[in-house]
Amino acid sequence: MIVKKRKVPLAIRKLRALACRLPPNHPKIPVIMNDLKKREAGYKGECSIDFPLSFLEPESYFIFHDLRLQDQSRFFQLDTLLVSKKYALIIEVKNIAGAIYFDPHFNQLIRTIEGKETAFPDPIIQVSRQESQLTNWFLKNGFRSLPILSLIVISNPQTIIRTAPENHKLHYKVIHRDALPSKIKQMEDSITDSSLSEKDLKKAVRLKNKHHIDADFSILERYNLTDKDLIKGVICESCKENQLFRRHGTWLCPQCLQSSKTAHIQALRDYFYLIGSNITNRQLRDSLCVSSASSATRILQSLNLTSRGVNKGKVYSLYFDE
Description:
By secondary structure, the chain is of the alpha/beta class. Helix content is 34%, strand content 24%. The chain is built from 10 helices and 16 strands. The protein has a 6-stranded mixed sheet. Strands 7-6-5-9 form a 4-stranded mixed sheet. Helix 1 (10-21) runs antiparallel to helix 2 (29-47), helix 1 crosses helix 8 and helix 9 (281-288) packs across helix 10. The chain starts with a strand and ends in a 5-residue tail after the last strand.
C-alpha cells in the first residue's frame, strides 16, 4: 500500500518557476538549467521504480516516497521506504548513464561516459548513514529494534556496474531496477520472524506520515538573486515570452491574440514558489502588472483564499501543491 505518494519535488517546482521568470540572457541561467536538468533526471530515476514496485503484494508493505524525517537535530531524506512487519527497506535510486565503478578503497563512485570520468559520493556510505538514522528514529519513537536494510537501485538498465574483485558482495547491495521485486522477495524469505505487531506497524506508519517535514528553502537566496531579477506580469502560455494585458476581466496577448480568464493563476503559482505564500493587494498588482486595486481585489476574491487583516493591511495566503 502506498502511504505517501510520489510528487514532483519542491526543488524542481521552484527551479522551473525560476527558469521561466529570469530573462533568457541572465548570467545565472546556465547554472540554474544545469541544476534543473540534474534534479529532473534524478526524479525520473525515482519514478522508474514505480512499475517494479507494483508487483509487490500491497497488503504486505507500506510504501513511502520522498520521506523526510528528523534524527535528533538533523533531517534525513529517503527516496523510497518500504515497511513491513519483518523489516524496513531503504531504496536509494541513482539515475546514472554509462559505466559506473564502485571504488571500495577511496569510497567513491566513478562514472565513465564518452571517455570522461566523473566522481560522485559513494551511495553505500549514504545508505549506511540512512540505516543508522532510521534505526534511531524507530528507537526514539518507542519501537523495538527492527531490521533496517537498504538497496541502491540503478534506474538505467543500460548502465554497466563494475567494482574491484575483492568487493564481491556488492551485488547484495546494488541492483538494476528490474531486479527489485525478486530482490525484495529474497529479503522477505531470509527473515523468518516478525519484528513488529500489526498494532505497532500501523502506529509506525501513522507516525512517519505525521513526522514528515518538507524541505522548504528560498530559491532566490540559493542563487543570490532578488525579486528585482525576475520578469513580472502574466506570461502568454502560447508565446512563452509576451506579457498579457488585462481588459474587462480577460487576459489578452498582443502578439498571438490568445485570451484567457485564468492566466494569472500560473503567475501566482510562480510568485508562491519564488517569493512566498503571503500576498497583499499591492504585491499582486506589482507582480502581475495590474494598475487597478479593484481589479486586483477581484482576482484575489475569485481564488477563495484565506486572509487576515483588513483594508490595506489585508494579507492573503497562497497555496499550490502538485
